[in-house]
Amino acid sequence: MTLLSLSDLTVFRNDCPIVDGVTVRVLPGECVGLIGPNGAGKTTLLRAALGLLEARGYSSLAALPASERARAVAWMPQAREIAWPVSVEAVIALGRIPHLPRGARLRDADRAAVDAAIAHMELEPMRHRTATHLSGGEQARVLIARALAQETPLLLADEPIAGLDPAHQIATMQVFAGLARAGRSVIVSLHDLAQAARHCTRLLMLDRGQLVADGPPAQVLTADNVARVFGVTAFYRDTPQGVVFQPMELTK
Ligand SMILES: Nc1ncnc2c1ncn2[C@@H]1O[C@H](COP(=O)(O)OP(=O)(O)OP(=O)(O)O)[C@@H](O)[C@H]1O
């Protein structure tokens, strides 16, 4: 079963392709990292895949009716300020809306999904706090929890670990990797190549709108690719404690 299929997806801005002919299939059980320099087109690709932007080519998600799409994919956008002064729990419960009959209250299964998301993101101590009073990183974790509560087969997250402290970055990536091991899939854009190398089963490397590498981290984060696309040298080693990746120096 394919959770996402993109075929020759292309987005133009001012007659220039900023996503250029991307073809990808994502299957259950994948934790996919979307990597690339600033401006490479990561956000644009995710938004076009979701049908939030007009694009040429095909996206299986964009082709779905909105109500079905909300049960097929959860989306955590890059802008993560929470606007409403309601409780953390209430924000996370919004993730259940796609599953509720119109106007219905939360049922036991919905409450269980909210509780599980709160536990996953270690938000129990703040579940009754006003969401707008939380720090930026805490708000980001609440929005990840809202996406988890949606219990979709696929989760798309745009830079979800940016601004999180190291422990919460690792914990969040472990949650995503765990979802993949349980048969769901995650596509996460990120700049932290070390976390991408450690936790993702597959990396998509985007450069000026084009998909230039697609495969397991060891095949994508080669010295050549990293130098060509990011302009840096890097240290990569498979150790008994897992992959260690560290960008080192500028190549130019
Ligand atoms: N609405 C728009 N109009 C014109 N150009 C745009 C628009 N949106 C994005 N772009 C351009 O498209 C390119 C890709 O942007 P995008 O935000 O997708 O990159 P990104 O890889 O997510 O970058 P970052 O890592 O900095 O978040 C950039 O050069 C950006 O300036």
Automatic annotation (TrEMBL):
Keywords: ATP-binding, Nucleotide-binding. The keyword Ligase does not apply. Coiled coil: none annotated. It holds the Pfam family ABC_tran. One of its GO terms (molecular function) is ATP binding. CDD domains: ABC_Iron-Siderophores_B12_Hemin (cd03214). Residues 4-233 form the ABC transporter domain. This is ABC transporter ATP-binding protein. It comes from Pontibaca salina.
